[in-house]
Amino acid sequence: MMNNLVLFPILVPFLGAILLMLLPKKIILQRTAALIAGLALIAVSLFLVFHVKQNGITTVNIGNWDAPFGITIVGDMLSSLLVFTTSIVLVCVIIYSFYTIGKPREKFLYYPAVLLMIVGVNGSFLTGDIFNLFVFFEVMLMASYVLLVIGGTKIQLKATIKYLLINVIGSGFFVVAIGVLYSMIGTLNMADISQKINALHGTNTGMLSVAAVLFLFVFGLKAGLFPLYFWLPGSYFAPPIPVLALFGGLLTKVGVYAIIRTFSLFFTKETTFMMPLLGILALITIIFGIIGAISYYDLKTIVIYNILIAIGVILFSVSILSRESVTGAVYYLIHDMIIKAALFLIIGVVMAITGSSSVKKFSGLMTVKPTLGWAFFIAIMGISGIPPLSGFFGKLLIVEGAFSAHEMIGGILVLLSSLFVLMSLIKVFTRGFWGEKSGHLTLTIPYRKMMLPVIILLTLSVLYGVFSNAVYPFIADAVEPIIDPNVYIDAVMKE
Amino acid sequence: MKTNDVLLRNVTKVVAFIIFLFSLHLFFAGHYNPGGGFVAGLTSAGAITLTLLAYDIKTVQSMLNINTIFITGVGLLFAVGTGLLGVFLGKPFLTHVFGYVNLPILGKTSLHTATLFDLGVYLVVVGVTLTIIQSIGESD
User: Fold this and answer.
1) What is the predicted ipTM?
2) What does the domain layout of chain A look like in residue ranges?
3) Residues A185-220: pLDDT tens digits?
4) Nearest CA in chain A to B75
5) Are A115 and A147 in contact (CB under 8 A)?
6) What residue ranges are annotated as transmembrane (chain B) (predicted)?
7) How high is the pLDDT of residue B10?
8) N or C end of chain A: which has fewer CB within 10 A?
9) Within its chain, how far is the Cα of A488 from the centroid?
């Protein structure tokens, strides 16, 4: 049956991880197998994108049990696009890992952990069952604990304890939230929950608000929303660069996706205060992200705070929930996954050359490695949204959506945030890349090989910006089930 | 002074065997009665842990001579493999097949591919538990 295609983005990395687990010490084999699994994942998810484009939302009921009773895996355009973006980031990170992660880590099940994390990420994007979403969240988190601690340096151990603690608490609340929802609605299939919530018609919605707040708490914790982002800067500072690129590119975005999916399906009609609350929290997240980004001189920390800004921008536009703003949010989500991964990889190259991520310690990198300098410059322009590049179109739609929904403050704040993103990173560019050559610069690294994945990601990002018209039909399909949940429900329930 | 734990060792020889048989019973009971791959795996690992307590890690490793991470991987392969069986038959992933088969000694027996999935779970549980116990036991 063709429908099993939807499952392959989960199965391909899973099979890859299992096979790699069997032979942990053979590094060459590990590398080639991981790369092959990544490339196969790209092929499969690209095929899935076109399949969904042609045939509409594709679902598969696992074990041949019908929709509300079994687990349904739903491939709509939004999840397919996110899965495709994930696989591209994965391959670039795997190639980058070859030259940077080091043999001890590679021998200690590094690649299986990466692939298992992708299983969790792809599963979270594709599942249509709220408890299955929890399970895939856990798969992703378990693998991310391993990736965070692998190598066992002091800073990693410290960060892992914090990260572990916060995520165990978050997962506990996730189970409680699902329990509250299940005790009210009596089903776990997301489409079925949505249908039954609509059938409530105003009765019993008090408890629904409780469930909504619980879900916002849980996903906000994973995504790094305002009062719950406190773990993120410390934890993300610790791991080695390829792992950081995976985390920064993918993990928080899964939280964002979960917010988009659950809130558009469950909590829009029956609770009036959820979306404004989400909007306000998102705006405060932007402000705190800006404060963090402009106050540090450490390259890694600056980009980590830029993650917060992006999360805020996306969630703010989701909270407006008009067609225009959600289109902008999806555009921006995909752009941000690619560009954040690229930025972290660039930072890795800079750190390999200078031995430090603080811009006060070096300057004049441009005279040594001009390609690196211009790559960084393009990445800055892309992330702050200069017109031909990828960050522009999404933000344009977000701001338009905000203004047409009369959210003046939010719209202006999003515009201002671009300025501060530009400022925080151009500060790095002028201090670190321009000027006289100074600081300790080692040039014995495999520079060209490390730049390859960076160039791939940046090229894709630029193409994504230049050809945003060609991408538009796909994004429009992705937005449809968010604006009108009935599209999603009909595809899953098939009656 | 070296203590002589001849009682513990001799009791272990008998009891570990009984525990292992009990875990096999739990494994095959899973479909109709309480039990299944998870408990069975835990009890099997319990039997091995008991021998670990009575002897030392090196003895047990030479007795069993298994790589625990390898077992975990094989278990996962079993689980995914039974899932893929459905895919090859043109049905959704994890669709199970079952039927009644006349076996030589046991007679008419109901067989279900879910048992193979359970076998995967069993192997993973045994592998993971033993990995945890061994790596904590070996680190100083």
Assistant:
1) 0.91
2) 2-492
3) 899 999 999 988 888 876 767 888 889 999 999 999
4) A18
5) no
6) 12-32, 38-57, 69-90, 110-133
7) 93
8) C
9) 22
